[in-house]
Design goal:
- A 7-stranded mixed β-sheet has the order 13-16-17-12-11-18-19, with helices on both faces. The protein has a 6-stranded mixed β-sheet with strand order 8-7-6-9-10-20, sandwiched between helices. Strands 1-2-3 form a 3-stranded antiparallel β-sheet, covered by helices on one side.
- It has 3 domains: 221 residues, Aldehyde Dehydrogenase, Chain A, domain 1 (3-Layer(aba) Sandwich), CATH 3.40.605; 184 residues, Aldehyde Dehydrogenase, Chain A, domain 2, CATH 3.40.309.10; 27 residues, no CATH class.
- The longest helix has 26 residues.
- The protein has 16 helices and 21 strands.
- The model has no long low-confidence stretch (mean pLDDT 96).
- Helix 2 crosses helix 6 and helix 3 crosses helix 4.
- By secondary structure, it is of the alpha/beta class.
- Bound molecules: NADPH dihydro-nicotinamide-adenine-dinucleotide phosphate (NDP).
- The site of NADPH dihydro-nicotinamide-adenine-dinucleotide phosphate has 31 residues, from helix 7 and helix 8.
- This is Aldehyde dehydrogenase.
- InterPro entries: Ald_DH/histidinol_DH (IPR016161), Ald_DH_C (IPR016163), Ald_DH_CS_CYS (IPR016160), Ald_DH_CS_GLU (IPR029510), Ald_DH_N (IPR016162), Aldehyde_DH_dom (IPR015590), Aldehyde_DH_NAD(P) (IPR012394).
- Belongs to the aldehyde dehydrogenase family.
- Pfam families: Aldedh.
Length: 501
């Protein structure tokens, strides 16, 4: 049965969370709200499941995760349709997101043994009769808290890696996208029916807060910086480790030697895809003086062609979270009041639940549109003397998540100078689709890494083991040592470490 409600505003009715389509208000699904006790019970069940799941070993988990990957792949269209209905995401954006998530499941499954499995490492010259072993063991139960803007890709960036490492997971999806979360958790349960290795708990922010205090062994949070601070404060009470993937204000730098057409295309896509509701979306652009006018014209002409609407085939869908519209409007109005100019769109571009592409120029660097996360289909484009000045301004916010550089000759040098976790050269957002690369930020964008080998290790504790293989050669770490042995040891150390080269 479907009912029409206030578009996009989740409601709680008789203990159920109701999710709605942000454009039409159509009810998408109802999900039981978890009480604090039921969150704790889920974690208790997860602990038993974790022991069983870890016991499957790398190969057993790999088989299950690859089967899960196949189910997601074979039901891609169904998943994308649900993502469109619940989040308003255009079908193509939903497909791109889901495919990236599938890639992560496969990568994590296929690389867990190599990255985490037991290996011999070198021993000290003074302890040659010992063998050293290193392996990465699962924490146990991971609490994953996810946002709504990428309802499968962002949680999967933690879930797939946590599962491949041998943990069980209790997942709290955003109140705006519970249906997508429930859908993929159900698919996993079809592949792993024996134990609740991946569970979901629904509700508002208080359910996320309960998960932080539920006794999980680590919290992987993706969401806003403000909530990330609350999560870290709650986790501090029990010294629970946290991984924080928070907001961003990513910049693109366009050098004078850039391929301007490619830069304009990547700027429009990186800034406006998913209606700009992307943590690593391009929000600010710094363009070398020499090519500024040409670049701006190309961006405006491309952005003006994008369709905005609720159809799955539109380029830009609705703003998923209605309260974000006020932030987007405030940033545009503030920029225009403070001397900025709209090269496209402007205040009238905000027509809830839609916002049309808005390109702002001459915006003061200290304004909200440049300093704060806008999370809408808007871009500020600023003229700079050269790419070096672009880097300086790119680094002048508290955030440091991703970003992009366009230059034919200086890409790698400039990328290193940008204070962020990821940079794409001559493209935008592409680092998010590379499972082998770590993903995460610095400063207000958080800390810790998902994806890649670092993402696997994030959900483990390193275990160091030293095993004696034979009789003691140089007896230093015993009260049986003699003065003669100590002199021998000093001679060996001087031989090994005493030279300046
Ligand atoms: P929020 O911070 O509002 O919410 C994130 C999650 O935290 C939701 O599930 C939310 O539940 C939950 N939550 C709310 N309050 C608490 C609490 N006190 N304790 C624990 N959990 C709580 O973020 P949004 O959902 O609005 O997501 C958008 C933000 O996420 C943007 O800032 C974006 O940049 C960032 N993001 C970062 C990414 C990254 O990888 N760095 C990727 C994607 C998004 P509920 O929804 O029920 O309130």
């Amino acid at each position: 049965m479907t009912a029409t409600r206030t578009p996009g505003v989740p409601a709680i009715d008789e203990g159920s969370l109701i999710s709605t389509n942000p454009a039409t208000g159509e009810e998408v699904g109802r999900f039981p709200v978890a009480s604090p006790d039921s969150v704790t019970e889920a974690v208790t069940r997860a602990r038993d499941a974790a022991a069983w799941w870890a016991g499957l070993g790398f190969d057993g988990r790999k088989r299950r995760l690859l089967a899960f990957r196949s189910v997601l792949t074979n039901r891609l269209e169904e998943l994308a349709a649900l993502m469109h209905r619940e989040g308003g995401k255009p079908r193509a954006d939903a497909l791109v997101e889901a495919i990236a998530a599938i890639d992560h499941v496969a990568w994590a499954a296929q690389h867990a043994r190599k990255v985490l499995g037991r290996r011999r490492v070198g021993s000290s010259i003074l302890l040659k009769e010992h063998a050293s072993y290193l392996e990465y063991l699962p924490y146990g139960v991971i609490g994953v808290i996810g946002p709504w803007n990428y309802p499968i890709l962002t949680p999967m960036g933690s879930i797939a890696y946590a599962l491949a490492a041998g943990n069980a997971v209790v997942f709290k999806p955003s109140e705006y996208t519970p249906a997508v979360g429930q859908w993929f958790v159900d698919r996993f349960a079809e592949i792993v029916p024996e134990h609740p290795v991946l569970q979901i708990v629904h509700g508002l922010g208080d359910v996320g807060a309960a998960l932080c205090r539920s006794g999980v062994d680590k919290i992987a949070f993706t969401g806003s910086t403000a909530t990330g601070k609350k999560v870290m404060a709650a986790a501090a009470e029990s010294l629970t480790p946290v991984l924080l993937e928070c907001g961003g204000k990513d910049a693109m730098i366009v050098a004078a030697d850039a391929d301007l057409d490619a830069a304009a295309a990547a700027c429009v896509w990186g800034g406006l895809t998913n209606a700009g509701q992307t943590c690593v979306g391009i929000e600010r652009v710094y363009v070398a003086d020499k090519v500024f006018d040409d670049f701006l014209n190309r961006v405006v002409s491309r952005a003006a062609k994008l369709s905005v609407g609720a159809e799955p085939t539109d380029d830009i869908g609705p703003i998923t979270m209605p309260s974000q519209i006020d932030i987007i409007r405030r940033h545009i109005e503030d920029a225009l009041t403070r001397g900025g100019r709209a090269a496209l769109g402007g205040a009238e571009a905000v027509q809830p639940p839609f916002v049309s592409p808005t390109i702002l120029v001459d915006v003061p660097e200290d304004s909200a549109a440049v300093q704060e996360e806008t999370f809408g289909p808007t871009l500020t484009i600023a003229r700079v003397r050269d790419a070096a000045e672009g880097v300086r301004l790119a680094n002048a916010t508290g955030y440091g998540l991703g970003g992009a550089i366009f230059s034919r000759s200086q890409g790698l040098d400039l990328a290193r100078q940008v204070r962020s976790g990821m940079t794409s050269i001559n493209s935008s957002l592409t680092f998010a689709g590379m499972p082998a690369l770590p993903f995460g930020g610095v400063g207000n964008s958080g800390f810790g890494r998902i994806h890649g080998a670092d993402g696997l290790r994030e959900f483990t504790r390193p275990k160091a083991v030293v095993k004696r293989r034979g009789p003691t050669v140089l007896a230093a770490m015993t009260f049986d040592r003699t003065e003669k042995t100590m002199q021998q040891i000093v001679r060996v150390v001087q031989l090994v470490h005493g030279r300046s080269k």
